[in-house]
Structure formats: structure tokens, C-alpha cells
Amino acid sequence: MRFIVTFERDEDGMIVVECPSIPGCVSQGKTEQEALENIKDAIRQCLEVRAERGMPLTVSMREVEVLV
Q1: Domains of the chain: which residue ranges?
Q2: Is residue 47 within a helix (H) or strand (E), and if so which, with residue range?
Q3: Do residues 27 and 17 make contact, with C-beta atoms less than 8 angstroms apart?
């Protein structure tokens, strides 16, 4: 499966990465590579839990570019 993830640096310098199509699926790392590996594990675990609970694996997501 393929997922889009977002990266953001927090106030402590950690890289926070989130998978918007799986609510609550967030991880972090000291580097982008570490954060990416961590979110892969988090995605697997979130999908497993959602499947066990009979929840939809993902929610619909759409990207739209907004000019301001």
C-alpha cells in the first residue's frame, strides 16, 4: 500500500511525521530517515488495530492546492 505522509519539525527539533489518511497515525524521529522508518511501523500497527476492530483501514483524503 502507498500512503502520503507529512513532515514537520517540532519545537524540540524532532521530525514529526503523520499519515493523514489514517487518523491518529503519527510518529517522530531525530532525522527524516528515522522518522520515515518509524511512521512505516506506525502505519503497519495502525492498520492492524483498525482491522482487528472492524474499522475502515483508511479515510478518504484529497489534496488541493490553495493559492493565497
Answers
A1: 6-52
A2: helix 32-52
A3: yes
